[in-house]
Amino acid sequence: RSMVTRAVSGLVGLVTGGASGLGKATVERLVRNGCRVVMFDLPKSDGEQVAKSLDPDNCVFCPGDVTSVEDVSAALDVAKSKFGKLDVTVNCAGIGIAVRTYNMHKKKVHPLDQFERVIDVNVCGTFNVIRLAAQMMSKNELGDRQEKGVIINTASVAAYEGQVGQAAYSASKGAIVGMTLPIARDLAMCSIRVMTIAPGLFETPLLGSLPEKVKNELGKQAPFPQRLGDPDEYAQLVQSIIENQMLNGEVIRLDAAIRMQP
Ligand SMILES: NC(=O)c1ccc[n+]([C@@H]2O[C@H](COP(=O)([O-])OP(=O)(O)OC[C@H]3O[C@@H](n4cnc5c(N)ncnc54)[C@H](O)[C@@H]3O)[C@@H](O)[C@H]2O)c1
Predict the structure, then answer these.
(1) pLDDT grade, residue 1 (50/70/90)?
(2) Radius of gyration, CA atoms only, the chain
(3) I want to staple 98 with a disulfide (CB 3.0 to 4.6 A). Which of 30, 94, 165, 219 is the partner?
(4) Using CA atoms, how far apart are residues 153 and 173, in angstroms rounded to an integer?
(5) Which residue owns the Cα nearest ligand 1 atom 25?
C-alpha cells in the first residue's frame, strides 16, 4: 500500500442518509470496495431493506435522526462494537423545501418553523454527526499515512445559486460550505480531514419519480454532459476524497458545469 493513495478496503464508514439516493450509492460503493459501513437513516426509511440487499457482515442499519445526540451516539457505539473503529464519515442526510420568502399573490409569508427545520436537519444535524464522529475517530491509531479519519459533507450548488423558493435550503447548504474550512482547521490537530461535495442535479428518488421528459429537460440544463448525475458518480468522488490525502478544507462542485437559473 503506497503512502500516497490509500485504498478504501478495510476502512469503517458511517453514512447518514444512507438508505436513499447519494447516501445509498455511497454505502453500496464502499461495501463493494471492502469497507464495513454503518448506514444511518430515519426509522421510516428503507434502511433495513437496503442493508439486507448488501452483505450483512459488512453493513448494518442504525435507525435515527441526525439532530439527535442519543441517536448519533448509538450509531457510533454500533460502529465501535460491531466493527471496532470509525475511519470515514459521510453526511448525506438532508431535506429541502420550496417556499417563497413572501408570496405576494397568495399573501403568504414563509413559515418560520419550516425555515428552522431545514436549518436544524441540514446544518445542526451535519454538525452533530461531525463533532461526535470526530471524537471517536480521534481515538484511532495513526496509520501509515499519519491520518485518523476523513469527514465528507454534502452541500449543493444551491449554496451558490439558490433558486426561487430555496431561501432555507440555500442558507443551510451555504452554512455547510462555510463551516468546511474552520472544521478542517479545528480537526487538523486530530489528523482528520474535512471535505464537502456540492452536487448539481443527480438522479435520486427525489428526481427519479419525475417523468423521463422532465428528467431529460433538467439534465439538459448542464452544459456538458447534458444529463443528470448518476449517484455512483457522487460515491466515486467520496472514494477519491478518501484516497487523496491532499484534499482538505475544500468544497468540490460535482455538477457538469451547471449554473442554476432563478
Ligand atoms: N439529488 C440531488 O440532485 C442533490 C443535489 C444537491 C444536493 N443534494 C443533497 O444530497 C443529500 C442527499 O440527497 P438525495 O438526493 O440522496 O436525497 P434522498 O431524499 O434520496 O436521501 C436523503 C436521505 O436522508 C434521510 N434523512 C432525512 N432527514 C434525516 C434526518 N433528520 N436524520 C437522518 N436521516 C435523514 C432521508 O430519510 C433519506 O433517506 C442531501 O443533503 C441533498 O440536499 C442532492
Answers:
(1) very low
(2) 18
(3) 165
(4) 10
(5) 17
Helices 126-137/167-187 angle, 10° precision: 20
* b/e sequence 121-155, b meaning 16+ C-beta within 10 Å: bbbebbbbbbebbbebbeebeeeeeebbbbbbbbb
Whose grid coordinates read 450548488?
157
Q: Which atom of ligand 1 is nearest to the CA of 173?
A: 43
Closest C-alpha to 249, from 197, 180, 174: 180
The residue type at 155: A
Q: What is the CATH number of domain 12-253?
A: 3.40.50.720
Query: Hey, is 148 helix, strand or coil?
Result: coil
Rounded-to-integer distance, Cα 10 and Cα 31, Å: 10
186 C-alpha vs ligand 1 centroid, how far in Å?
Answer: 26
Q: How far is the CA of 23 from the centre of ligand 1 (A)?
A: 7
169 annotated active-site: yes
Place of cell 438522479: 203
The predicted-structure confidence for 143-187, as pLDDT tens digits, reads as follows 888 999 999 999 999 999 999 999 999 999 999 999 999 999 999
What is the best residue among 97, 206, 214, 218 to mutate for testing ligand 1's pocket, by most ligand atoms within 8 Å of CB?
Answer: 206
Q: Out of 102, 160, 169, 234, which one is annotated catalytic? A: 169
Q: How far is the CA of 104 from the centre of ligand 1 (A)?
A: 30
